[in-house]
Amino acid sequence: MEMFRLFFCEKSAFALYFCSDMMIFTYLCVMSMDFATSLLIWYQRNARPLPWRETKDAYAIWLSEVILQQTRVEQGEGYWHRFMRLFPTVEALASATEDEVLRAWQGLGYYSRARNLHAAARQVVSQGAFPRTIEGLRSLRGVGEYTAAAIGSIAFGLPAAAVDGNVFRVLARYFGLASSPYTTQGRREFTTLATELLPSAEPGNFNQALMDFGAMVCTPQKPRCELCPFALTCVALREERMEELPVKRLKKKVTERRLTYIYIRNKGRVAMHRREEGDIWQGLWEPLLIEGQDKYKLQTVGREGVVAFVYSAPTDSPEEAVLAYPQLLVRNQRHELTHRILMADFYFTELQQPLALPDGYCWVDEGKIDEYALPRLIVKLLERLPAPCLQSP
C-alpha cells in the first residue's frame, strides 16, 4: 500500500504530499487557496516547453493555434516548424499560392484549416497588422471564439478566456458541473465560469495552464489524480464521477463511402484532378476517380470476371470500348475521417495512347507528383505503385 504524509502550512496554504513508491511530491490545493493561483503555480513548474511559447509574435501563436485544432501537439509541432521555415512571416504566407500552402499542410487533415489560414493571412496583410481586439481577431477567416481568445490573451494580454475540450473537462470535474458544454447554454455557463476565474494580470498563462493541465493531468482517460494539485477539493474525485464528467456529446452516425481510383500512366504523365468545393479534400489532387464522372468506368467482362477499363460512348451510341485491363493494386484501403469511413480500391494501367480526359482532369508530369498537395489516403495508395511507374521514361 502507498504510504504518504500530509503537512499543512497555513502561510502558504499548501499541503505537501509525499508518495514513497514513486518518489514524487506535489502541492495539494486546500479550500482556502484560489483556483487560478494554484493552477498558475502548477503551470510554472510543469508547463510544456513548446516553441511558440518563446515568443509574443501573434503570427507564430496564431499559426500554432490553427495547427493544433484537431491535431495532437506531438504531431503539430513538426508542422509548425515546417510552416515557420517555409513562411516565416504572415507576409510570406499571404504571398504563397494555395497549392504551396496545401502542400505544406499535407497529412494534417481538415484542409479547410489550411485554406482559412491562407485567406486570413491575406486579410492581415491587407489590414497592415494583426488585429489587437477580440472582435478584430474574430473577423479573420477561420478564427472562432476559442482561437481569438487564445491569440488575444497570449499575444496581447487581452482578458479573454479560451474554452476548449481540455478546459471543459477540468472545470466540469473540479466544480462538478452537470451541464453539457456541447450545448449552447452549457457552453455559455463554462465560458462565464472560466472568465470569472481568469486573472487579469496573466490571462495568457492561465489559458495555457488550463490547456496543459487538461492534457497532462486531468486527461480524458485515466486521469492522474495522484498528481493533481486540486485533489482535496475536486468534486468529481470526491464523488467518484471522473468518468461521467464532462457530460459527453451525442455521437454522430458514422457513414461509409467507397472510392475507386485508377492510376493512368501515359509516357511519363499521369491523369490527375484537383478536387472542387462541396466535398472532402477541397483543393487537393487525386488520380482518376471512377465515381463522379461518366466518361470512363470499370466493368467486369468475360466468364472469368476480368475487370476492364472502358470508355463510355455518348448516349447516342451504345458502343463501349475496352481501353485496358488494369491491375488491382489495393482493395478496401480503409481511411477514417470525422464521422466517415472511406474504403478505396486502387488500380493501375499504362496506356500507349493518350486519353481524352473527363472535365477537370489534366496530365501531370509523373516525376513532379510530390509537388502537388495530396490527401493522405492518396499518398498511401501511391506507395503501392510498382517501382517502374514512379520513373519517367
Q: Any idea of the CATH topology of the largest domain? A: Endonuclease III, domain 1
* Main beta-sheet annotation: 6 strands, mixed
CATH evolutionary superfamily of the largest domain: Hypothetical protein, domain 2
Q: Helix/strand-derived class?
A: alpha+beta
Q: What is the N-to-C succession of helices and strands?
A: EEEHHHHHHHHHHHHEEEEEEEEEH
Number of domains: 2
Highest CATH level, the class of the largest domain: Mainly Alpha
What is the arithmetic mean of pLDDT?
A: 85
Low-pLDDT residue intervals, each spanning 5 or more residues: 1-33, 315-319, 389-393
Q: Gyration radius, to the nearest Å?
A: 27 Å
Helix content: 25-40%
- Tell me the total number of β-strands: 12
Annotation field: number of helices: 13
Query: In whole angstroms, how far apart are the ends?
Result: 71 Å
Oligomer: single chain
Instruction: Please give the CATH architecture of the largest domain.
Output: Orthogonal Bundle
Account of the protein in words:
Helix 1 (35-46) packs across helix 11 (203-216), helix 2 (58-67) packs across helix 3 (73-86) and helix 8 (145-156) crosses helix 11. Strands 4, 5, 6, 10, 11 and 12 form a 6-stranded mixed beta sheet that branches. A 3-stranded antiparallel beta sheet has the order 1-2-3. With 393 residues, it is α+β, with helices and mostly antiparallel strands. It has helices spanning 35-46, 58-67, 73-86, 90-95, 98-105, 112-127, 134-138, 145-156, 165-175, 184-197, 203-216, 235-238, 376-382; strands spanning 6-9, 14-19, 24-29, 255-266, 269-274, 285-289, 296-301, 306-312, 320-324, 327-337, 340-350, 361-365. It folds into 2 domains: 14-238, Endonuclease III, domain 1 (Orthogonal Bundle); 255-390, Nucleoside Triphosphate Pyrophosphohydrolase (Alpha-Beta Complex), CATH 3.90.79. 34% of the residues lie in helices and 21% in strands. It starts with 5 loop residues before the first strand and ends in an 11-residue tail after the last helix.
